Amino acid sequence: MSSKKPLRVGLVGTGFMGRTHSNGYSQVSHFFPELAYTPVMQAVCSRNAEKVQAFADQWGYKSIETDWRALIARDDIDAVDICTPNDAHAEIAIAAAEAGKMVLCEKPLARTVAEAQKMVDAIEKAGVANTVWYNYRRLPAVSLAKQIVDSGKLGRIFHYRANFLQDWTISADLPQGGAGLWRMDAEAAGSGVTGDLLAHCIDTAMWINGAISDVSAVTETFVKERLHQVTGKVQPVGIDDACIFHCHFANGSLGLFESTRYARGHKALYTFEINGANASIRWDLHDLNRLEYFDHSDEGIVRGWRSIHVTDGDQPYMNKWWVPGLGIGYEHSFIHQVADFLQSLETGGPCHPTFRDALETQKVCEAVLDSASSRSWKDTGVTSFAV
Amino acid sequence: MSSKKPLRVGLVGTGFMGRTHSNGYSQVSHFFPELAYTPVMQAVCSRNAEKVQAFADQWGYKSIETDWRALIARDDIDAVDICTPNDAHAEIAIAAAEAGKMVLCEKPLARTVAEAQKMVDAIEKAGVANTVWYNYRRLPAVSLAKQIVDSGKLGRIFHYRANFLQDWTISADLPQGGAGLWRMDAEAAGSGVTGDLLAHCIDTAMWINGAISDVSAVTETFVKERLHQVTGKVQPVGIDDACIFHCHFANGSLGLFESTRYARGHKALYTFEINGANASIRWDLHDLNRLEYFDHSDEGIVRGWRSIHVTDGDQPYMNKWWVPGLGIGYEHSFIHQVADFLQSLETGGPCHPTFRDALETQKVCEAVLDSASSRSWKDTGVTSFAV
Amino acid sequence: MSSKKPLRVGLVGTGFMGRTHSNGYSQVSHFFPELAYTPVMQAVCSRNAEKVQAFADQWGYKSIETDWRALIARDDIDAVDICTPNDAHAEIAIAAAEAGKMVLCEKPLARTVAEAQKMVDAIEKAGVANTVWYNYRRLPAVSLAKQIVDSGKLGRIFHYRANFLQDWTISADLPQGGAGLWRMDAEAAGSGVTGDLLAHCIDTAMWINGAISDVSAVTETFVKERLHQVTGKVQPVGIDDACIFHCHFANGSLGLFESTRYARGHKALYTFEINGANASIRWDLHDLNRLEYFDHSDEGIVRGWRSIHVTDGDQPYMNKWWVPGLGIGYEHSFIHQVADFLQSLETGGPCHPTFRDALETQKVCEAVLDSASSRSWKDTGVTSFAV
Amino acid sequence: MSSKKPLRVGLVGTGFMGRTHSNGYSQVSHFFPELAYTPVMQAVCSRNAEKVQAFADQWGYKSIETDWRALIARDDIDAVDICTPNDAHAEIAIAAAEAGKMVLCEKPLARTVAEAQKMVDAIEKAGVANTVWYNYRRLPAVSLAKQIVDSGKLGRIFHYRANFLQDWTISADLPQGGAGLWRMDAEAAGSGVTGDLLAHCIDTAMWINGAISDVSAVTETFVKERLHQVTGKVQPVGIDDACIFHCHFANGSLGLFESTRYARGHKALYTFEINGANASIRWDLHDLNRLEYFDHSDEGIVRGWRSIHVTDGDQPYMNKWWVPGLGIGYEHSFIHQVADFLQSLETGGPCHPTFRDALETQKVCEAVLDSASSRSWKDTGVTSFAV
Q: Any idea where the GFO/IDH/MocA-like oxidoreductase domain is (chains A, B, C, D) (predicted)?
């Protein structure tokens, strides 16, 4: 391993995403030994010294910080990885870029397009490597979907639909805001399901099917007031509990998106389907190693949806893992993104989705929220999307 | 069988629906022997004498007519069943009602709300028994869904979503209009997928979840011109090839509906799902004997979506058929509707959906089309729905 | 319809199978109008005059008999259809054949090979048309499986496995014998699951994959004593509650069969799977309109089991029914068998499975029971099977 | 991490299993931070110095050996982990035990009962901690199945069935023996699918449902001769390509097991199902995060198989991973076994399956092969199984 070039990472945030990213850094060199770079888990940063030390011990970070500005100031950090709540993304990313650090940022990039635009400006001015963790792209079945669409098998696209259904906030007794629940707080999160869940769906959709041009949306907040953990008061809920929109893609196809945290029975049901003139594809996060594929060119009497168990060595990323039939998990999408980021350092190309790509997704999210509040169609301003 | 009261039926139309209805009349007394009434297949009417005679021979109709006015004029006809293209529904139904006949009409009731309103007025003025063939309600799994929701198991409803996806019109070489293809002709059909497919979804949705208050829709016509079979010319296509809308139900839940004939791989994928605070239900026409049900009150470690094979004697209609595990088919929904219509004659109550119920569905369809053309939300004017 | 030749049927037995056959006779001419023959429901026979009259009224039989010998003696009966408990099959079938009647007999053909052999001798001596109601062959998906295997798509066959799992006799309080429960009585039924359920699996298997040469079996009777409905006493249970066997087919492939009435959760789960060098097929009665098919010659990255919704017009029998996507039910297998029997009268060929075919199945069943009781392999004596 | 006690591991073998175990050692402390012990990847051993160094670099082993005897002789090794082909298990394990090392051994424990018995004798004489890598037990869904059965929810057990179907050896061009293909060589492997695949099924089955008492089996070798990679000659194939057996469990239930490498379309389809009087469970490795469960005590009209997505924090092992709905993979079963082994060091109890447990599984495997070759039932000699 001494022959590899180190990428010294400083992680900000030790929550759920802090764990998935740390796992990515830990695992990547075990499964992608050919890469020239290897991550070095140099430092992790969070406000509570005791907790961050425990996290560092658990994951093997060499040092800790309790102030992200101190982390950015260190010379022994090459890349800053941002896993904080959304309201801290912009400030940290901009400061890191200005300090010449590479920046990896959790999604959504920001709370608003305005914030996101500033981040892109700073990153591009600094010219630093960057990526945003829209991790689902890199599940093998999703990458395979992209590969199939790009191959032209589907022909002209007519429909794209996706949903992301959860049920964890149905209880009116669930508080909002504070530790573990910042996603319920509009100030910290920027929005509810739109930024948290639909942003994933939009990233995948535009990656696979191109730009979304205009949107017509509806949002709903089913539980109007909740106890806020920080203020200790029952306060109005500012986030969208559910969001539905239909849209046009630039290629003329129709899109349909839905997300909610009130779909009893669905833990994290992210599904998408794309229908072309010749073939269709669908996928479901609950069975993440499978891709369903229908090909109209199959002989008629034996034509049907194929359930592809995406675990063969010729399918995306799967030559890195086990043998056919043996599935991998959710966390592997992050390992793959680390691998692709390291690869991009070798080649000098971008690691999509970049900050700029994520800005486009942010534009769609904002158009969706604007459409819902104004009860009218909104143009997104997005005209193309990097693939 | 001599002890049963006859219901002498005159059928208008010998196409796909003419067959399903004829099967209903043929079969009902074999499986519902307790009914006081039995259908007598008195006459069938269609323009082509040779074809209608063959149809009569095949199905056992006692006589034929080639003019529906002659059929209505006959004294030996108690009920007129309308299976024509949509553009003939109103005229026949109104004439039949005025002649004092019971009227059974294929869905959608009419091409427009204005037509439908006239039909309801005529029917109600005549005071004749009536029903509209929104047959899917009476598939056992769908009826069971209704029964479960009515039992209160779901609690407060948050979401209802349905789609009806087909793929039979993707080829640009498919002509429009004329024999077998009147559904492609806006003049004959009134609309495309909205009246043909979404109308089914809307009927089921309002039956299960109550009135739809307002809608926001988008439609698309993917193939702009097609050869018209009757005129022999390539003409603009007037129908909607695809239609998506979201909506509010009167009970505060969000609705999401989609239909298309351009979803490659789906022959007739009518699915719906309803999410309540405590439980959820979903169904799929392609596996019509199954209902999926999730109950949050199940013990946590063994909680999951239940795949209910709706073939037991204590499930709707299934005590009439075979033994547990042995499924029935699509056509049985029509047999059930005949049975329920005969039952309603016995009890004197309505056989839902009545013409009035179907008018409400028509209002939603029209609001959907208006919303799509105006790119704005539309109120439906529907405030309640018979259950 | 006057131009059709009548086949005057006399039905013996008014139970579950009496209903499925009657439905077959009622429906066949509605959906197979091209056939030269049409069934005439001439008479139905059962011991209880009141009940058989009600059955005749319900199904449209023209007359009744309470003694099957009287039925056979009638000149106006062309074909005798036997739906009695198994212990009466031989006597009725032989008498009918000797009277020159065509004979249609429910499966299993008999309780023993000896009985079955006498029936075959009588039938062949009389030279009358005959068939045995192994109905599952004629579900479209099963017929399609046969068609695919015959086309050679699978290549060399390695494995065939089938099971038929039920759960309706688990309660020790269920009585044995008598009305509705003769299948629990070894004297009336001949055996338990072997003749009732495995016989179906064996018929399908040999039809698709050829003769079964030898077998090694185990049986179990989980509930050793039950109240007998007729004697009123708690008596030893004589039937096999469960039966498992493995076997060799004449083509060198391995077979595996299992049946039980103690598989909680399975109402009538008849499944089979066949694995060839190039392709595989599987099917499940609970989703009877689907066939799963795997073709190794599909391109690797998009290879997977196809879920074929067998409802297209180019799939077996389905040009007779509705439109793609709309499923049919269990009962349709009997309609198809009536159609094929009528067709065989036109062509003069046999309607498989004939009595002789069913004798071969009986040999396998008997070898299975012998193997279980002797705890040793048994040759079946079957060397070929009509396809 | 300094506060944890080290377990210094020496790994023998760098193939597929060498990777899965190394991953287990790498990952366990990231996800089970509460454990007192932590693995130290002290040394890895394989014959080829260059390859083993590359493996050590990739996985972070501190040193290498090319002779397993040298590894065992080292003082800085606490535990020897054996991932060699089966023919080396016994010699290494016995030597390691005699050297006072803890021993972790890949399954099957040995090629024969005689070998396995010697291993157990040595291990128990040495009194060293030990475990055998029947990893599938520790997939959360499988552990949940065990928990449910142990809770008594199923009631009296009637049936247990399992199969393990693959298709990777169908081509007659695949060589036998040598690198990557020792599983095809009877001398190296001991047997074919029986030891490789059925051993897994038997371990799970006896863990969940208790001892298997007697067996009746059939085996088949479909491709009789293959090129041997080592000898360079076309030689007879000595392994079983397929194996089927039925059996009695000590609790009176019937068992049915099948394994093959000739089931086209199945990559690694390990499934099992257990039927009790009150409830049933089934599982499928291809969808490893799901468990299906049927509970007859559910209300009749909404009763059905539940599809449990085993990703909640109250389900086995899942409080260590992500959030509900996000699945894990195959490899995690090994991480869990490492965790449980480390836990057993803390508590002083055994880590099942121990060598002794694996000996019982070996007895069943051997009885199966004996039964097949003698075409007769064989007692296994197993009377109980540790749970």
A: 144-282
Which residue range(s) make up the domain with A130?
Answer: 5-135
ipTM > 0.90 (yes/no): yes
Return the pLDDT at A2: 57
Q: What angle do CA D14, D25, D311 make, to 5 degrees?
A: 115
Of residues C154, C218, C263, nearest to D246 (C-beta): C218
In the three-class reduction of DSSP (H, G, I as helix; E, B as strand; rest coil), residue D201 is classed as helix
**C386 is a domain residue:** no
pLDDT of residue A1: 46
Judged by CB atoms closer than 8 Å, whether chains meet at C301 and A307 is answered as no
d(CA A89, CA A95): 10
Among A70, A104, A135, give the residue marking a domain's end. Answer: A135
Residues of chain B with Cβ-Cβ distance to A221 below 8 Å are: none
**Do residues C182 and C262 both lie within one domain?**
yes
Give me the CATH number covering residue A362: 3.30.360.10
Q: Which of C308, D236, C22, C252 is nearest to A300 (CA)?
A: C308
Distance from CA of B310 to the nearest CA of A (A): 20
Domain C-terminal end among C79, C101, C135: C135
| D385 in any annotated domain | no
φ/ψ region of D359 (left if φ > 0, alpha if ψ in -120 to 50, else beta) reads: alpha
Q: Is D44 left (phi over 0), alpha (psi -120 to 50) or beta?
A: beta
In this structure, are D283 and D366 located in the same domain?
A: yes
| List of chain B residues whose C-beta atoms are within 8 Å of the C-beta of residue A161 | 258
Neighbouring subunits of D (3+ Cβ pairs under 8 A):
A, B, C
Q: Which of C144, C301, C307 sits opposite A305 (nearest CB)?
A: C307
Question: What pTM was estimated for this model as a whole?
Answer: 0.97
**Is D326 in contact with A325 (Cβ distance < 8 A)?**
no
Statement to judge: residues B147 and B102 lie in one domain: no
Contact C30 B58 (CB under 8 A): yes
- Do residue A220 and residue A302 come from a single domain? yes
Residue in the block written with tokens 């140099």 = A42
A99 shares its domain with A9: yes
Q: How far is D329 from chain A (nearest CA, A)?
A: 4
Residues constituting chain D: 387
Cβ of C265 within 8 Å of Cβ of D277? The answer is: no
| Mean pLDDT of all residues in A62-86 | 98
List residues of chain C with CB under 8 Å from any CB of chain B. 1, 16, 20, 22-23, 26-27, 29-30, 33, 54, 57-60, 166, 168, 266-269, 285-290, 309, 311-312, 321-332
Out of D242, D262, D278, name the one closest to residue C264 (CB). Answer: D278
Whole-angstrom Cα distance, residue C98 to residue C29?
A: 29
Q: Are A177 and A229 in contact (CB under 8 A)?
A: yes
**One digit per residue, pLDDT tens: chain D, 387 residues?**
458 999 999 999 999 999 999 999 999 999 999 999 999 999 999 999 999 999 999 999 999 999 999 999 999 999 999 999 999 999 999 999 999 999 999 999 999 999 999 999 999 999 999 999 999 999 999 999 999 999 999 999 999 999 999 999 999 999 998 878 999 999 999 999 999 999 999 999 999 999 999 999 999 999 999 999 889 999 999 999 999 999 999 999 999 999 999 999 999 999 999 999 999 999 999 999 999 999 999 999 999 999 999 999 999 999 999 999 999 999 999 999 999 999 999 999 999 999 999 999 999 999 999 999 999 999 999 999 987
Residue D78 inside a domain? The answer is yes
Dihedral pair phi/psi, residue A41, rounded to 5°: -85, 85
The series of mean pLDDT values per 10 residues for chain C, 387 residues long, is 87 97 98 97 97 97 98 98 98 98 98 98 98 98 98 98 97 90 94 97 98 98 95 95 98 98 97 98 97 98 98 98 97 98 97 98 98 98 92
Token pair for B62: 């006692």
Q: Where are the alpha helices (DSSP H) in chain A?
A: 16-31, 49-59, 68-73, 89-98, 113-126, 140-150, 186-189, 193, 199-209, 332-347, 355-374
| Chain A contact set for C298 (CB, 8 A) | 306
